[in-house]
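Both lines are given unchanged directly below:

***
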Amino acid sequence: MEDQKDIFLKKLGDRIVALRKERNLSQSDLASLMDSEKPHIRKLEKGKRNATVSTLLKLSNSLGVSVSELVDVGV
């Protein structure tokens, strides 16, 4: 059974994918905007990596949303 953390990370990943696609960005595009690497984005989107606060800030800035909008995944 998945715990709350796993559920949150999966939903956050789904949210990142949805926002990225709404903006017609590839994983590589988003990684470039964040000064990051594509594998890092892939792991975040799959819910396999726990995002730090600074990563959440970079994501929100790159996707044009607030951090609270980014993490509002209904958990």
